[in-house]
Amino acid sequence: MIEGRKEIIQLVFIVTGVIFLIKLFSIQILDERYAQLAASNSIMKEIEYPFRGLIYDRKGKLLVYNSPEYDLLIVSREVKSLDSARFCEVFDITQEDLISLFKELKTRKEYSPFKPTVFIKQLSNYDFAKIQENLDEFQGFYIQPRTSRAYESEVLANALGYVSEISKNQLDRDTSKLYRQGDYIGQSGLEGYYETVLRGQRGVRYKLRNVKGIEKGSFKNGEFDTLSIPGQNLITSIDLELQKYGELLMQGKVGSIVAIEPGSGEILSIISGPSYNPSLLTGRKFSSNFALVSSDTTKPLFTRPLMAMYPPGSIFKIVQTLIGLQEGVISYDTRFPCDRSVVNCHNHPNPTDLHGAIQYSCNPYFLQAFRRIINQNKSPNTFTDSRIGLDNWRGYVTRFGLGQPLGVDLPSEKGGQMPTSNLYNRIYGEGRWKFSTIYSLSIGQGEMLVTPMQMANLAAIMANKGYYYTPHLVKNVKDGSIDSRFTVRHETGIDSAYFSFVQDAMSDAIYGTASRAVIPGITICGKTGTAQNPHGADHSVFMSFAPKENPKIAIAVYVENAGWGGRAAASIASLMIEKYLTGEVKRKSLEEYVLKGDFLDKVVRTTPVLEAD
Amino acid sequence: MRREDTISTNMDWATALIFAVMVLFGWLNIFAAVYDETAHQSIFDLTLNSGRQLIFIAASAIIILGILLVDMRFYEATAYLIYGAILFLLLLVPIIGKEVGGNKAWLGIGSFGVQPSEFAKFATALAVAKFIGSAGFRMDQLRNQLILFALIGVPMGLILLQKDTGTALVFSVFVLMFFREGMSPFLIIVGVSAAFIFILTLLIENEIYLHIAIGVALIIAILMGKRKFKRIALLTIGALLLMGVIESVDYVITDVLKPHQQNRIKALINPEADPLGYGWNVTQSKIAIGSGGFSGKGFLKGTQTKFDFVPEQSTDFIFCTIGEEHGWIGSLIVISLFILLLMRIIFIAERQKSRFARAYGYSVVSIFFFHFAVNIGMTIGLFPVIGIPLPFFSYGGSSLWGFTILLFILLKLDAHRSQMLHRL
After folding, report:
1. Per-residue pLDDT, A604
2. Is B309 on the interface with A (CB under 8 A)?
3. DSSP state of B392
């Protein structure tokens, strides 16, 4: 009867042992979840946010710095008997806010009751002082310091860009895996373009903690800890005083000012009007302010110097002159009658030589000059001849930095448009267009668009007599170097002698078409333009550099809907030049004239011609 | 001197060695469970559990010496006396005992306290073995069976009065010894299948499937064997009983079990449902063990136990430290040590010439097995949380001494087995 019972008992014991070992094998070796859970239980990751690099102007004046702010973190498991009324009082929120904060917390993907999670973001220094005293009343809440951007002045908003929390889209597209939800990232302007330089490197400290959240030393003696490395500082080429003055002049106007130091390509001022106060897009009020700024019908977030594109108009005549001279199809003495059968003109001595044509901006002259550039009888077929001529011409304008982005160190730079034979082939069909189809190009109209930045660069080319450096905003990266492409000299391939001739004409033009621009004691060279606007009053354009000998500043000014270039744009450019070269403006009446000019009402906001691509 | 020679030559040194290894390994793990890197503590520090456990171990050595020196006839002769004395102490506990951790299980003088329930195990084992070993004992007599159940039932009941359900449940394992000594397996089968069905009912949403399964099993069982009325009747009654168990589950869960006991059962089935509440112990215990991986985090390198994520980490949940710091390999070693010990005790029990000694041996192995199975089972989520220690590993004087006495009385009897010629 009791035979075999010993064996049954032995079997039960062994089977029990084997079942245990199988179960242990499953949870210890097969299931990796437990190791992660253990780590999240006991290892607390403390992130040390690096200081973002500072931004200075060319004279070392601070433009952008960091101001401390604080995030309130929560470890839900440690929160016990929260006095919600008191909490709301200390943190200055309503009961409803508190409830929605808790609700929102639980919906987050990475939420864990054991991990510190951001509960209230971006408490200011002022809030923090108040809260710090009372924080010990609330178990399970911690303060994590970090920084937000702060601005010394209210200018340069578009070029500086802004910093905000990384969006979900950006996170998904981020391949560096350096960013996490809640991190800040430079979104536009210099902040965006130089993100990798400015951001620095975050530090991480792994700390052990027990079940009550009490620190129990570092994890593996800090083997995996890293110190945060501050971001590098940017020294920009911006002249803060000039920038401020330019923004003052642009008040009540829509348009752009770009000033470049011709000898280096450094951008002295880049003004987009209307702009916004950069301090709006920082700190706790970011979201509500951003909604305000981005819904403003004057589009303050639109960086006009780089993104607005206009027909170059009369300014382009100097490019045509230089190409014609280099091609040998016109000379200084070439005269054309002011034949207004195809294009209109204004009253001036007739006929005129090249100098006069530039000075008086004679439209029929350049129509005929351009015909000579395009049709050089390289082919008996006038259609083929036009194509050959246009391709040749396109090669020249490309070397002037037109028709493609210049490569400025700011995001979203537009390239404008310089037509190619392919473009006309697409529009009219191959061999079905000739000079008479494209003649508008001769006076800077037709299928031709440029940005204010490209026009400023053209001014720099004129100043340099034939070459330019890619315009850029960052002179120097502290503890780093600037991109070598900013030190490459780009040649137009046109003899500098021709430039001297055009400079003389441009200098005389000031007295012809833009007498307001004359500055006593300084010889300036300039060319007015009027960008035709089918939607309203024409845009006023002026391109200039000074002094004529050894130029220090090249500038392009666009004032939308302000009519003829000789007025608003030339006045502003002239004041800017005076300000930069002499340090103060003596022509108060001109200044007053500009400040009074308000062309904002004339801006046609419903039809964004500026963005025409 | 001659007498000591006899003991040292006849003593089962293999068992003693396993015992020593377990106690030593247990001691190291107790230190690991309470170790605080920042405090620079020594394993001998008397303010730590490990330091105190060393004193308990030293005391065990004295107890062992005492057990071995006493005449082997003493244990059988005084079995009922010891049993009676322990019952008396158990009676005293609810009256003058002190409460520790919700259970009133301690008898104390000053700061020193013992748990009589831990000693009730060996006392009951002696008494039951003596009864089975008495002249003319026949297991198939109902009267004898009733007496046996009374012998284990009385201490069990007294311990239940102390609200120490875990220790009380240990006494049910004597059934395993009764089985070896000839009791019909019917009781075990009924008990095990009732428990099995009980758990299945909890796991399966719709009880109707279980009823159908039992019905089908019943029909198959009837068709497979001889179609005698008595057999069919017995099978049908059995099936109806099981169905009754199914129907009683809800009642037992909600009305018989106390809320904390209900939670322990819920935690077994789905600890993730409330990981911070009733699921906490099981969840954290599994995290600690599971994070050990294949070879563990290394001695004193565990985080889950020493940072108190695991409750009772040096007593009932000491296996978590082993699993976390020594991984699957460490667990394999500990489980192997236990299986080795159990097999060795069976071997020893079987070679006894007296029925008293054999029954005692089986009592010992049954008790060790119960503790081993339930304790490790609960830490890895295979068993509800029942607070009983892991023999020789868990921190605690009373439990260590209780298990030591249990084992070494057997080794003492074994050393003199050739002198016991009577009544097998």
Report:
1. 44
2. yes
3. T
Residues A271-296: what's their mean pLDDT?
A: 87
Contacts of A20 in chain B (CB under 8 A): 331, 335, 376-377, 380, 382
Q: What is the pLDDT of residues A149-168, one digit of tens each?
A: 999 899 999 999 999 888 88
Report whether pLDDT(A322) > 90: yes
Site from A28, A80, A114 to mutate, B interface, most B CB atoms within 10 angstroms: A28
Where b means 16+ CB within 10 Å and e means fewer, B306-345 reads bbebbbbbbbbbbbbbbbbbbbbebbbebbebbbebbebb
User: CB of B181 within 8 Å of any CB in chain A?
Assistant: yes
Cβ distance B338 to A17 less than 8 Å, yes or no, reads yes
Query: Residue written as tokens 């990232």?
Result: A185
What is the Cα–Cα distance from B3 to B17, expressed in whole angstroms?
A: 21
Taking a C-beta distance cutoff of 8 angstroms, is the pair B188, B237 a contact? no
Please report the pLDDT score of residue B251 as a whole number.
78
Confidence category of residue B109, pLDDT binned at 50, 70, 90: low
The answer to whether position B406 is within a domain reads: yes
Chain A hits for B382, CB-CB cut-off 8 Å, are 19-20, 23
Give residue B11's domain range: 2-180+274-419
For domain A240-550+557-611, the question of CATH label 3.40.710.10 is answered with yes
Bridge pairing between strands A215-218 and A55-56: unpaired
Measured in angstroms, the CA of A180 and the nearest CA of chain B are apart by 26
What b/e sequence results for B268-291 when a residue is b if at least 16 CB atoms lie within 10 Å of its CB, and e otherwise? beebeeebeebbbbbbbbbbbbbb
Is B117 found in the same domain as B70?
yes
Do B350 and B406 sit in the same domain of this protein?
Answer: yes
B290 contacts in A (CB within 8 Å)?
A: 27-28, 31, 33-35, 37-38
Find chain A residues with C-beta within 8 A of B377's C-beta: 20
Query: CA–CA distance from A610 to each of A271, A317, B309 (Å)?
Result: 16, 22, 64
Main-chain phi, psi angles of B310, to 5 degrees: -90, 130
Residue B195's CB is within 10 A of a number of other CB atoms, namely 11
Q: Which of B227, B256, B285 is the last residue of a domain?
A: B256
Closest by Cα among B90, B64, B264 to B167? B90
Q: What is the 3-state secondary structure (H, E, C) of B144-207?
A: HHHHHHHHHHHHHHHHHHCCCHHHHHHHHHHHHHHHHCCCCCHHHHHHHHHHHHHHHHHHCCCH
Q: Would the ipTM clear 0.85, i.e. be above it?
A: yes
**Alpha-carbon torsion (A255, A261, A267, A268), positive or negative:** negative
pLDDT band at A509 (very low <50, low <70, confident <90, very high): confident
